[in-house]
Amino acid sequence: MKPSPALLARLGWAALLGVGVAALVWLVAQSSQAGTDFCQDYLAAQRALRSEQPYFLLFSSSGQSLCPGISLYDAHPPFTILLFLPFALGSQAGGALLWGLVSLAAYLLSGLLIVRELRWRLLRGMALFVVGSLVWTPALLAIGSHNLGQAVTALLIGAWVLGRRQRGGWAGVLLGLAALVKIWPIALLLHALLWRKWREALTGALTVLAGLLVSLVVLHPAAYAVYLGPVQAEERTAAPSYSNTSLVGAVARLFLGYPAQPQPLPPLIAGVGLARAVLLAEAVGGVLLAATLAFMWWRGRLVKPDVGELLSLGLLVVALLLTFPVTWYWGLITLLLPAATLWLALRHLPSPPRWWWAALGVSLILLLIPGGLLLALPGWLQAQDAHLGGLANLLTWLPTCALLLFAGTQAQLLWWASRPETAADLTPSSC
Prior knowledge:
This protein is mainly α. The protein has a domain at 239-418. The protein is built from 20 helices and no strands. α12 packs antiparallel against α13 (274-300). The longest helix is centred in the first third of the chain and has 27 residues, at 5-31.
C-alpha cells in the first residue's frame, strides 16, 4: 500500500525540520569552542561565586584580553550575573555549550509560540522557521555568539502569548524578567498601562523591584556602582559601532565615524567629541520614543482593542530597538514579535494600498538580507577607495533605515485603523 501524499508531505517537513535543528545544534557546538558573549558572563559569575566584585577589566596582567572581541567590562546588567551562576559551576567550555543549547531551546520555543499563535500548521511552520533562521543573519549571529537576545525574545513572546490568554500576572513576571536582563523591555509596562492591563503592569513592576533587591543583596551595591559608572561609560564608546543598528548609533557615527580596521570610517561632521555626540544621538532617540508613545496614546484609544494592542505593541518594540543606545545587529531577532503582531493585525483589517505593501516589502528585504551584507558593505566600500568614506558612513544607516521604515508601516496602519472612514474604502485583507 502506497503512503498517502499527506503522509509523504509530513515526512518531508519532519525531515527538513530535523536537518535544520541539527544544523543549529552544530552551530552552537562549534561556536562554544571559540570566544563568545558567554565569556564575560562566565567570568563575572565566577567572581560572584567567590564573593568578589563581578565587574572588572577583562584583561590579564600581561595586557591580553580575557574575552577577545568583548569590551573592557561585562556589559550586561547585574541581575544577569545571577542568571549565569549555575553555568559558572563547571568549565567555561562546558558552560558555554550548555548555555548555547538553553538559548537555542528558547529561540525554538519563540518560533513554536509564534507558529501556534498565527495558527499555521505546526510541522510545516516550524520547519520553515528553522530553515529561515539558517539564512537570516541576525538569527545566525545570535545563536553563534551565545548572547542574551534569544532568552529575551522568548520572554517577550511568552509574555505576549500569556497576555492574550488573559494571564496577566504571569505575563507581567516574564516582562519583568526581560527588563532585568536587557533593561529596555521595562518600557513595555507602559503598553500594559495604556491598555489598562493593571495586573500585568503591577506584577511586571514588582518582578523588576524584586530582581533589583535580590541582586543588590547578593552582589552588593558596589556592583551597581561599577555598572552605572565605568561600565556605562565604556558602553558609550560602543555606540558608533558598525553593528549597532539603533538610531543612537547611526546619529553618533555621523559625528564620530568608527575606528574600524583596516580602514577607519571617517565622520561626516568633524569636531564633535564622544560625550557630546552620543548625548545628541540619545536626545534624538528620546524624541522618537516620546513621539511614539504619544502617538500610541492618541490613536490607540480609537482602535478596537484586539487590533490596537497588536499594532501598538509591535510599534513600541521596534521603537525601543531604535532608541536603545546599543542594539546589536544580532539583537534584531526580537523583530519576530512585531512581525507576528503585524501579521495578526492585518487579518482583522482591510487590505492597505499597494504603496504600503511596497514600503513593508522594502523594509523586510533590507532586514532579511542574508550573509551579513549590510554590515560588510560599508567596510568593503571604504577599502575600495578611501575617498568614499562619507558614502560608507551613510551606508551604515541601512539597517536603521529599514527599522524606521518598518516602524513607519506599523504607525501608518495604526493611523488607518483609527479612521473608520478610511478603512471603509479598502478591500478586505487576504492575510
